[in-house]
């Protein structure tokens, strides 16, 4: 494990031995003001493309630090291609969800407007920052992309043909086409090979409207699943669904 | 679905047709002051033993209501026997965890003191209230028991012979006896029939100490599992582990 005590930071710059990099903005502030790291201290850097690199702080200033990249300490690894589509929820739970989805390894996070979405405002920048922080801490090598808010109808109208949607249908219990996640993935794999592009779609707290449900269920790429007999909050359902997907179709398998 | 708009309350009293019950304390406050329900309004009641019952409010006062039980609307169902053992975490995340574990269907919640537990205070009453609230909202028919705080060493010294522990070992990656959850449950089922008494043990943020890990791994009832290649926070790990257990050994199966 790289580093429980070495700071780990995402930066959007190329990483190679000897590169001198200025860390300012959020990474600089975090490193110098929050973590209180000093000249000579090591720091782990990643950019989502080149793996993890050990760098050394060679100079610090107010909320900024100059570092020199010393060596590659972990190669970039492939990560599952799973989009997380969700109807935005209350602020505190939203941060929480982005953190969880990032730790659990989704590749893209996209807020979706639905008939019952309770949205006062959505700060994509804030979502991106939460995702970066979570990626830094959980030691994943990429930061999930954050795609802009989109209306559900627009999203579905233009849905890529080769990407499946695991639809967590809270009204699907008793529906004979709605399986538990493991069974659903098994069926898909049996019929379609082992498709590796997926998305997970979770509804808003009040559920999708009937018109929305009909639209979703009519899409051939949609795989409806149930998450057990109890009613889950949207955030619980998301974490459970992502963990199950990782376990049956992602990188948590044997 | 019973009731998106009818209030649903847990009460610790016997439920049968015609019973007149006084709801005061928390349930009375919630019903009258928070939900603002009035005479004639229906309310769903459950006590963890007798299923869901429809009752009618026949009188309200300050933070209290008299109700008459009208009819049984759902029979009690059996629930999985899964204990959730965790090292207490920061307050906000603790409430969150209790809510999540309840929604996901654990039967008992027990905080455990470990070498690295960061505990200032623990209010068991508060945990119990969070569990009741979550049970009311997710429409499960029981409220998980809340067992008192116990030291890990004491817990393990007296561990019941017939209950397995799914141990989420954050240092277990690469350990050849440490499988993903599905594989681990499969192995257990193959060797031991289908044991139905389980516990899930999640460590504190800093992980278990080496001495603790050794103690845990030495117990024959312990089944070590991994939760994928990324580092999960204790709360993420708990939700993921419970969802996976439900999916492989609990009531989320086909």
From TrEMBL, chains A, B:
Residues 80-246 form the Ribosomal RNA small subunit methyltransferase E methyltransferase domain. GO terms for biological process: rRNA base methylation. Belongs to the RNA methyltransferase RsmE family. It catalyses: uridine(1498) in 16S rRNA + S-adenosyl-L-methionine = N(3)-methyluridine(1498) in 16S rRNA + S-adenosyl-L-homocysteine + H(+). Specifically methylates the N3 position of the uracil ring of uridine 1498 (m3U1498) in 16S rRNA. Acts on the fully assembled 30S ribosomal subunit. This is Ribosomal RNA small subunit methyltransferase E. One of its GO terms (cellular component) is cytoplasm. PANTHER family: 16S RRNA (URACIL(1498)-N(3))-METHYLTRANSFERASE, RIBOSOMAL RNA SMALL SUBUNIT METHYLTRANSFERASE E. Its EC number is 2.1.1.193. InterPro entries: Alpha/beta_knot_MTases (IPR029028), PUA-like_sf (IPR015947), RsmE (IPR006700), RsmE_MTase_dom (IPR046886), RsmE_PUA-like (IPR046887), tRNA_m1G_MTases_N (IPR029026). CDD domains: RsmE-like. One of its GO terms (molecular function) is rRNA (uridine-N3-)-methyltransferase activity. NCBIfam families: PRK11713.3-5 (NF008696), RsmE family RNA methyltransferase (TIGR00046). It is found in: Cytoplasm. Keywords: Cytoplasm, Methyltransferase, rRNA processing, S-adenosyl-L-methionine, Transferase. It is an enzyme of class 2 (transferase). Residues 23-67 form the Ribosomal RNA small subunit methyltransferase E PUA-like domain.
């Amino acid at each position: 494990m790289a580093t429980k005590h070495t700071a780990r930071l995402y930066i959007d710059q190329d990483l190679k031995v000897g590169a001198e990099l200025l860390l300012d903005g959020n990474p600089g502030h975090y490193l110098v003001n929050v973590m209180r790291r000093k000249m000579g201290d090591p720091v782990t850097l990643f950019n989502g493309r080149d793996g993890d690199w050990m760098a050394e702080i060679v100079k610090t200033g107010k909320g900024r630090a100059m570092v020199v990249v010393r060596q590659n300490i972990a190669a970039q690894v492939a990560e599952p291609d799973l989009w997380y589509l969700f109807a935005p929820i209350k602020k505190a739970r939203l941060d929480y969800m982005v953190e969880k989805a990032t730790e659990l390894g989704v590749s893209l996070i996209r807020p979706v407007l639905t008939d019952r979405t309770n949205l006062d405002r959505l700060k994509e920048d804030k979502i991106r920052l939460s995702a970066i922080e979570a990626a830094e801490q959980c030691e994943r090598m990429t930061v999930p992309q954050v795609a802009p808010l989109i209306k559900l109808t627009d999203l579905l109208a233009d849905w890529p043909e080769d990407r499946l949607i695991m639809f967590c249908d809270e009204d699907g219990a008793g529906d004979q086409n709605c399986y538990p996640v493991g069974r659903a993935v098994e069926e898909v794999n049996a019929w379609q090979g082992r498709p590796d592009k997926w998305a997970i779609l979770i509804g808003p707290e009040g559920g999708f409207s009937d018109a929305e449900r009909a639209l979703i269920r009519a899409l051939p790429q949609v795989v409806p699943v149930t998450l057990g007999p109890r009613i889950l909050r949207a955030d619980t359902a998301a974490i459970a669904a992502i963990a199950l997907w990782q376990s049956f179709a992602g990188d948590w398998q044997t």
